[in-house]
Amino acid sequence: MLSPEARESLESVLDLGCGVQYFREVLRENHCNPSYTGVDLYPHHKDNILCDFNQGEFPYFSKGSFTLIVCAGLFEYIWDLPKFIERICKLSPKLILCSYNFTNVSGIDNKIWVRNRLRQEELFNLFLSESYVLNIYKTHKRNLPTGYFCFCKKELMGKI
User: Fold this and answer.
1) What is the rounded distance in angstroms from the CA atom of residue 58 to the CA atom of residue 102?
2) Which of 23, 71, 83, 144 sits 20 to 30 Å CA-CA off 117?
3) Other CB atoms closer than 10 Å to residue 45's CB: what's the count?
4) In terms of CATH architecture, what is 4-156?
């Protein structure tokens, strides 16, 4: 989903909810070798930083430490998604790559997802309020229609 320009400028990645660090493999397959930090609730990979976002835990990182923050398959499990999105935007990455199953689109619920999921407009407005704009939006339909999004800082729109 990242443009060639975005891939070229990729220096550092923070992968929140990284699991077995699948995205790290995707980066390597695409000949990208940025510094990579994975964070997850479980020690699926030996160098994952462990934390529970729903208990208010979040590792400390300096503002601007990451070019890209990835949240793939994570938002459906976060109890206070507006607060979580505010927190990741405060780290000021150039790009935020995420996925989400909207409450008003899928019509199907996974029993372990949070019950009060957002509508598309609500999610997009959370990023807009933090000066991030939608750069790319794709969907993939298997059992559930999942939206994949890339948000970028407003001032970088059209440049990466």
Assistant:
1) 24
2) 23
3) 14
4) 3-Layer(aba) Sandwich (3.40)
